[in-house]
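INPUT
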Amino acid sequence: MSGLEVFGASVRGPAHVAERAANQDAWTFASIGRGRIAVVCDGVGSKAHAREGSRAACRAVIRAARAWRRTPEASLDVMLSLVHVLWRAEFAPRVASECACTCLFALVEPDGSGWAGQLGDGAVLVEDADGMIAPLTTRDPDGFSNLTAALGDTPARLSAWTARALGAGTRSVTLCTDGVADDLRPEALADFNAWLRLAHLPLAPNQRWRALSAALRDWPTPHHLDDKTIAMIVRQGADDEPQR
Amino acid sequence: MNTPALKSFVAATARPLPVILLADVSGSMYGAKIQALNVAMADMIQTFRDESTSRAEIHAGVITFGELVELHLEPTPASQVALKPMFASGSTPMGAAFAMAKTLLEDTQKISGRAYTPALVLMSDGQPTDAWEAQLSALLTSPRAAKAQRFALSIGADADRRVLERFLNNPEARVFEAHEANQIRNFFRFVTMSVTARSKSVNPNQSVILPASDLDDLL
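OUTPUT
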């Protein structure tokens, strides 16, 4: 059986640095039973309390997942409904639309099974036992950069979520806000994911954070402006297991 | 340092902000109007080219409609545009121009999903001479075109304001008017200021409202 490692980092983008504004992205992780959950959220830039909303969403997903795990019969829709309710409760009496944010999460068990969910833009990259990458969503062919669905949209719709059960043997799940995802070259996703895993996993936890933060701050795309956040759950030792 | 590796996985170009112009080059534009249009467009491209503080790379594209409906300029980074002069002749096949604009906006090879929402600019001095209503409706209901920021310029007394207002499809948006050729340049300055302000804003997808004093100076 393999162990689970979680790491990530979040940095302010040049636009917020120039304005001396706070990072509107947020991320967190937690243990749930023997599994791990990671959450990445991106506050919608035009909203007054987007930073508060993205932090509230991180906490809400952890709370919802813990409650959901205690009820094995409940469908994932139950958990997603809980996320919406608990998210609003986190910042009440503020108005939900003023706290709008995207929300990406992955819940991974020691055998690699679990769930991943996404509301809004960004990317969830699921790596299987063979190193193949399957993004949870594909880019909206009718969309443009920085236009997104979000927690806080009216009406709140569970159908706006994309969710997928993870098969046993999943090697890693990477969550990225759009500041990262929109600049990734589609043909390089597997290489990007492998770099993330291989360059950071051998490091001590505080070194991982430092190295990843430095890479995000030194983002190579010209004129990039968004906040950038990445979180990754990796099954350590998965490489040593027989291929399924 | 991780960054050298990261470079090979991410886009090496800035996110584009496309500006697509639909220019009437019918015979009635002959003379001072087409000359003013050529000068104004060259000025605009030069300003986009000089814009070094942008957060987005402005890409310009031009569809002309007159004797022919053609993609006069493929969407191109302003710094690389070699603009050819436009010549006026023929009728006003605006419907076919709407159809070409829809096809262009839906082409994700030419206008990628990384792009900020485009600006779509229509200028005309006459009435459409082809079937235009279905084409305009298709353009406005196209998911990508519907998101575009739209500008419209009515040139002279014979322009069909009704079509231009339908193109804007927004009761709060204004059809600009150029009664004389030199006012075409003022309209382009306004479009240029709006687009460059967007390109420098925190969110280049949001329209920037220019101060009224700037408008008064221009129009």
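end of record. The CA atoms of residues 24 and 124 of chain B lie 5 Å apart.
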